[in-house]
């Protein structure tokens, strides 16, 4: 039996191509949700064929704090061990598939190892080489690598980061699986929100805790500069998460945005709509790591608001990784110079992964 263990929508999006391949192969599998965030699997039914998980743990308290998160993580790990005694029964034929660097991925990897399963890590080997950037993801990655049996890396840099990891097998899929989900979504209709009404636009996303809690002053300056660039020639769609709205209200910026003619606040969009909306944009400014991969694949100019990035694709071409406001302003003014052609993929990452899964099941 194959188990897909995850707890965020981003993980699910990147696992959909692999789940689809496993489903098509006829190999038995189960989807298990950790409860780290709320995931509406039905939203992705058009590309995954699934509407609900086989099992899900209690969802984390929506209140955002380190304490509540730690309590949820410990409780879920203990509950998963108890649940695993009856579910896994120490069968060595079982396979645990995790994705990325979340706390859910960490729990799933340890759970798999405890119950003698083969642990498969999708999107393995990413590193910033700074334990605190991003936190706790960089720490999670290093622990996960130590308990994983099969590492599927998206490029040679990720492969190189695992050269000293013992007793495990490593594979280069050449690309991130998220581009497959992106391509699946682009083949379907969606994302007409605002495209015709507002003409040319760019997308602005800001939601990471280091920007909203640790570097507030710099974040306020950044938002003010982006607002200045928004004008009658090009609108800005500011995709606002709940935590972002709280920050904007507390700093008085939300009221300014509501009065702006050209910076348009929007709530989080469904994945299908977002993919089309992102594809039609002129460029993006975001602190989301997943947007890095999407922009690289589409050839879309994109500023990744990080001091350091674990992803290297497209950097120096259509991707700029920085929090330096001067560099961001320069990129915005010259964004047309960073347009690139959409990538042509000869072999999808999930095909590489599925080829190896068939050998170990």
Please characterize this protein's 3D structure.
- The chain is of the alpha/beta class and 361 residues long.
- The protein folds into two domains: 2-186 and 347-360, Rossmann fold; 195-268 and 281-338, Glycogen Phosphorylase B (Rossmann fold), CATH 3.40.50.2000.
- The protein has 16 helices and 13 strands.
- The strands form two sheets. It has a seven-stranded parallel sheet, sandwiched between helices. A six-stranded parallel sheet has the order 10-9-8-11-12-13, with helices on both faces.
- α1 crosses α7, α1 crosses α16 and α4 runs parallel beside α5 (137-147).
Helix proportion: 40-55%
In this structure, how is the largest beta sheet organized? 7 strands, parallel
From the spread of the alpha carbons, the general shape counts as globular
Arithmetic mean pLDDT: 92
Oligomeric state of this protein:
single chain
Termini separation (Å)? 8 Å
Task: Give the CATH superfamily of the largest domain.
Answer: Glycogen Phosphorylase B
Please tag this protein with its features.
361 residues; alpha/beta; Rossmann fold; 7-stranded parallel sheet; 6-stranded parallel sheet; 16 helices; 15% strand; globular
Summarize the model shown.
The protein is 45% helix and 15% strand. It has 16 helices and 13 strands.
Task: Produce the secondary structure layout.
Blueprint (H helix, E strand, L loop, with lengths): L1 E5 L2 H17 L3 E5 L11 H4 L6 E2 L9 H22 L7 E5 L3 H12 L3 E7 L12 H11 L2 E4 L2 H6 L7 E4 L5 H9 L8 H4 L2 E5 L3 H6 L1 H14 L5 E5 L2 H10 L1 H7 L3 E4 L4 H10 L3 E3 L2 H10 L3 E3 L14 E3 L3 H9 L15 H12 L1
Helix pairs in contact: 1-7, 1-16, 3-4, 4-5
């Amino acid at each position: 039996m194959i188990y897909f263990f995850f707890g965020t929508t981003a993980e699910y999006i990147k696992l959909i191509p692999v789940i689809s391949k496993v489903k098509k192969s006829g190999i038995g599998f189960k989807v298990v949700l950790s409860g780290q965030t709320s995931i509406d699997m039905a939203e992705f039914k058009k590309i995954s064929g699934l509407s609900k998980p086989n099992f899900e743990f209690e969802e984390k308290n929506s209140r955002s704090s380190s304490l509540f998160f730690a309590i949820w993580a410990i409780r879920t790990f203990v509950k998963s061990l108890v649940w695993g005694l009856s579910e896994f029964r120490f069968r060595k034929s079982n396979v645990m598939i995790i994705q990325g660097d979340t706390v859910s991925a960490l729990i799933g990897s340890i759970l798999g190892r405890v119950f003698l399963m083969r642990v498969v890590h999708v999107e393995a080997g990413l590193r910033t080489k700074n334990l605190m950037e991003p936190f706790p993801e960089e720490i999670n990655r290093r622990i996960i690598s130590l308990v994983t049996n099969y590492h599927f890396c998206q490029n040679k840099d990720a492969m190189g980061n695992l050269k000293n990891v013992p007793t495990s097998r490593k594979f280069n899929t050449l690309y991130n699986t998220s581009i497959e989900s992106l391509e699946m979504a682009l083949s379907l209709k969606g994302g007409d929100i605002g495209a015709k009404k507002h003409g040319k636009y760019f997308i602005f996303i800001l939601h990471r805790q280091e920007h909203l809690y640790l570097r507030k002053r710099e974040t306020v300056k950044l938002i003010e500069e982006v607002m200045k660039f928004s004008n009658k020639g090009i609108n800005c769609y500011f995709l606002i998460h709940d935590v972002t709205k709280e920050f904007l209200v507390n700093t008085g910026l939300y009221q300014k945005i509501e009065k702006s003619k050209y910076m348009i606040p929007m709530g989080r969009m469904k994945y299908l709509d977002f993919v089309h909306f992102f594809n039609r944009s002129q460029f993006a400014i975001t602190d989301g790591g997943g947007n890095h991969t999407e922009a690289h694949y589409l050839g879309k100019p994109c500023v990744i608001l990080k001091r350091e990035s674990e992803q290297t694709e497209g950097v120096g071409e259509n991707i700029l990784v920085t929090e330096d406001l001067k560099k961001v302003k320069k990129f915005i003014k010259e964004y047309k110079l960073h347009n690139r052609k959409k990538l042509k993929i000869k072999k999808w990452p999930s095909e590489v992964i599925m080829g190896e899964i068939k050998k170990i099941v």
